[in-house]
Amino acid sequence: MGNVVGDSADANVAAVAGTHSAGGDGIRATSTSGNGLSARSRDSVAIFAESVNNTGIAAIGHKEPGISGISDSGDGVRATSTSGNGLSARSANGVGGFFQGGRLAAFFEGDVEVTGDIRLVNADCAEDFDVSGAEKIEPGTVVVCGGNGALRPSSSSYDRRVVGVVSGAGNYKPAIILDRQESVEQRAPVALMGKVFCNVDADENPIEVGDLLTTASTPGHAMKASDPSRAFGAVIGKALRPLAAGRGKIPVLVALQ
Fold first, then answer.
1. d(Cα 254, Cα 257) in Å, to the nearest integer?
2. Which helix or strand (DSSP H or E) is residue 231 part of?
3. Is 124:175 a contact under the CB 8 Å cutoff?
4. Domains of the chain (ranges plus CATH)?
5. Which positions of the chain have pLDDT values less than 50?
6. What's the half-sphere exposure (Cβ side, CA atoms, 13 Å) at 70?
7. Phi, then psi, of 83 in degrees rounded to 5
8. 138: which residues sit within 8 A by CB, 6+ positions away?
9. Residue 197, exposed/middle/buried by CB under 10 A (0-12, 13-18, 19+)?
10. For 201-225, how does the pLDDT look when each residue is reduced to its tens digit (9 = 90+)?
């Protein structure tokens, strides 16, 4: 296929379509400095490729993306294969595949296998819980489990019903959120492990780095666990920054115990 520019005014007719009955590539695009294949669609799929035994789309970009597909309301790129790779992307020095979306950057239906490391840039592993009451619970709030299983802000010291700290305060955001689902009930992500900013009250006891924290009588706050006999089962985590007096938010390493 030589240089091709496709234009179609019919919504049912593709601007560019390639077919190879002998088993080769339907469309092959190569560029040494620009995009190998670039397509834009307003209401439908920007790029669609289907292969029976080979790769649906294969692209190699030296300086720019191998494939760039942009769609205002449909799929940027859609690739289907019955036995090969639906979409194969490779980069020698950059990112193999880059996805950006308004609601979701990517959606996978089925298992995902990773042979390398998964690097998450955010701080904690959280899980969504139902929250009692109509008022929104702010990030950093210490929460306990109520009688109906829904969470509410803590309000008593050394409360063994403590579940954790609502994730997302300060510059620490959740890296993973478990059990995220649509619900008619208000839900909030609670940090299960990792670093999270937490509301603390140091009026009764100054907080030093390394102090274990428990629930305070101040609603939604933690305090230094100064009584070991009452702390077991009510510890939220370990202070990562001191607070000499007053109330504020400090980073905490979550470690329920």
1. 10
2. helix 228-231
3. yes
4. 1-119 (no CATH), 124-254 (2.40.300.10)
5. 1-2
6. 5
7. -140, -20
8. 166, 169, 220
9. buried
10. 999 999 999 999 999 999 999 999 9
